[in-house]
TrEMBL record:
Residue intervals of the HIT domain: 2-104
Protein name as catalogued: HIT domain-containing protein
InterPro entries in the record: HIT-like, HIT-like_sf, HIT_Hint
Annotated GO MF terms: catalytic activity
Residue stretches in coiled coil: none
Gene3D superfamilies in the record: HIT-like
Length: 137
């Protein structure tokens, strides 16, 4: 059996890029600039489940995505988290936070219902992030 993206991530996100280890997703919630890295490794739940080389690759790809998020959004704070309480498949959230966002200073989870991107804004965000990932890779 090959790697498959968790159905919840498929439902809630758009795939915007493929890095050597991870798929890069955009969460379909226009309240927050929110991307997710998902290592394309079958059956992995924890970072320590990856071999050492893949762990290092994950951190390099996380650093790249962090630089992309900083460049695109200039957040007050960039939150990075690997929770996995709802979706066990290993994934790293990268969320740009602002002192005036709807959840500040609390975590974004469950604070307000998600609002889907309008189609044009979705396309703009995906394209802009793709371009920055290519430029900064």
């Amino acid at each position: 059996m090959m790697f498959q993206l968790d159905p919840r991530l498929q439902q809630d996100c758009f795939v915007i890029a493929q890095l050597p280890l991870c798929s890069v997703l955009l969460m379909n919630d226009c309240h927050y600039p929110w991307t997710i890295l998902v290592p394309r490794v079958k059956g992995v739940r924890e970072i320590i489940d990856l071999d050492e080389s893949s762990q290092q690759r994950l951190w390099r790809e996380s650093a790249l995505l962090s630089r992309v998020m900083q460049s695109r959004y200039q957040p007050y704070k960039l939150n990075i988290a690997a929770l996995g309480n709802v979706v066990a498949q290993l994934h790293l959230h990268h969320i740009a936070r602002f002192e005036n966002d709807l959840a500040w200073p609390a975590p974004v989870w469950g604070k307000v219902p998600a609002t889907a991107y309008p189609p044009q804004r979705q396309d703009e965000e995906c394209f802009a992030l793709q371009q920055l990932i290519e430029e900064m890779s």
